Amino acid sequence: DAGVIQSPRHEVTEMGQEVTLRCKPISGHNSLFWYRQTMMRGLELLIYFNNNVPIDDSGMPEDRFSAKMPNASFSTLKIQPSEPRDSAVYFCASSFSRGGLNEQFFGPGTRLTVL
Amino acid sequence: QKEVEQNSGPLSVPEGAIASLNCTYSDRGSQSFFWYRQYSGKSPELIMFIYSNGDKEDGRFTAQLNKASQYVSLLIRDSQPSDSATYLCAVNMASNTGKLIFGQGTTLQVKP
């Protein structure tokens, strides 16, 4: 079985440019999560979807960040305009949520560098 | 107080010893608890979950949960250098159905 797929794996861009990160969750999973990880702040939840609907976006740092999930097999995280402080590893994770058991499986991540 | 707390370490143990990793959480109603392992430059990998008080064993790994004291631990028996990684504790809070709160992680170093 394919795990969570993310693209691109690495992205280097200049400040002010638009960045789009992509994620394909594990087939059959109904929840999708976007995280950001830095040395200083650790692993932070940005937003999560349940059945393609955004449930909690309280972790989205500001309006420059937006996320969509048009269908059960695809999600995007967009940063526009990007800033150097957005440099981090962005992970997508998915799970099949059922009551209190919600094992999340992570994709390989996208390492974003904003110059 | 952070919702999920771990000692950042590093925790250093000799090869063959038992490594004990601890995690405390603030929400008494939390339902399920997860341990992830993350190698440097890689993504977190789920290694165990537990939702009932007591111990759960899987090979060299044992997760222990004490809801009254609000802590969960991970024991690694016969530690190997390949166990050297950062271990993340994650908690499914009672108020959320799918959201996990992660601790900062404990770095484990197993020395040959």
Q: What is the chain-wise order of helices and strands of chain A?
A: EEEEEEEEEEE
Intertermini distance of chain B:
36 Å
- Estimated share of beta-strand residues of chain B: over 45%
Query: What string gives the helices and strands of chain B in order?
Result: EEEEEEEEEEE
State mean pLDDT of chain A (0 to 100 scale): 93
Can you walk me through this structure?
The complex is a heterodimer of chains A (115) and B (112). Chain A is mainly beta and 115 residues long. Helices cover 0% and strands 54% of the residues of chain A. Chain A is built from no helices and eleven strands. Chain B is mostly beta strands and 112 residues long. In chain B, strands 2, 4, 5, 9, 10 and 11 form a six-stranded mixed sheet that branches. Chain B has a five-stranded antiparallel sheet with strand order 1-3-8-7-6, with no helix packed on it. In chain B, 35% of the residues are buried. The chains are: A mainly beta (115), B mainly beta (112). At the A-B interface, strand 5 and strand 10 of A face strand 4, strand 5, strand 9 and strand 10 of B.
SSE layout and pairings?
The complex is a heterodimer of chains A (115) and B (112).
Chain A: E1 5-7, E2 10-13, E3 19-24, E4 31-38, E5 42-50, E6 53-56, E7 65-71, E8 74-79, E9 88-95, E10 105-106, E11 110-114
Parallel strand pairs in A: 2-11
Antiparallel strand pairs in A: 1-3, 3-8, 4-5, 4-9, 5-6, 7-8, 9-10, 9-11
Chain B: E1 4-6, E2 11-14, E3 19-25, E4 32-38, E5 45-50, E6 54-58, E7 61-66, E8 71-76, E9 85-92, E10 100-102, E11 106-111
Parallel strand pairs in B: 2-11
Antiparallel strand pairs in B: 1-3, 3-8, 4-5, 4-9, 6-7, 7-8, 9-10, 9-11
